Amino acid sequence: xxxxxxxxxxxxxxxxxxxxxxxxxxxxxxxxxxxxxxxxxxxxxxxxxxxxxxxxxxxxxxxxxxxxxxxxxxxxxxxxxxxxxxxxxxxxxxxxxxxxxxxxxxxxxxxxxxxxxxxxxxxxxxxxxxxxxxxxxxxxxxxxxxxxxxxxxxxxxxxxxxxxxxxxxxxxxxxxxxxxxxxxxxxxxxxxxxxxxxxxxxxxxxxxxxxxxxxxxxxxxxxxxxxx
Length: 228
Hints:
Helix content is 47%, strand content 12%. It contains 7 helices and 6 strands.
């Protein structure tokens, strides 16, 4: 069914300037959908439940009984009946450092007298003391590690907690504590890194030390061959 609407609007005549009342009529035709194109919503059908067979019913009852029995046994289990699982502790592998410049450090640390009788600057000492202050630190103006121990450690072929513990004793002749042994090994490794960098930056110095190392090694090997 069509619907008719009428609107009344006041407009001004541009020629005379007179206000005029204008009426307009509108006809609206509603949208209709053909009956053949209208789809009825499908009604949801409930699924037909098949009755359980006797065998399925018996299986369900057995499963329910087994579940209840397991729940009762879990409640009756006391704390003393629970065996504690062993705790597996993971230990870090021991750190072992092979010192490839041990002989070079021994030769470089040898005291040399200059023409005026004063010793030359010992760069080995510089790296050892720097490692002691950097790694171990100081407390009330006193280093937390003995520099003499680090001097000896940087000349060892193998640096590890076992080798350091076996090589040093305190002032009372007793083995060093675990903390001291660890600090000495850490300082020695840190100092050796600096020494290796120093030799890499000074190839002439490294070559001179390497020549002496080769000579000493050949001399001792020849002596051992003669003794054999």
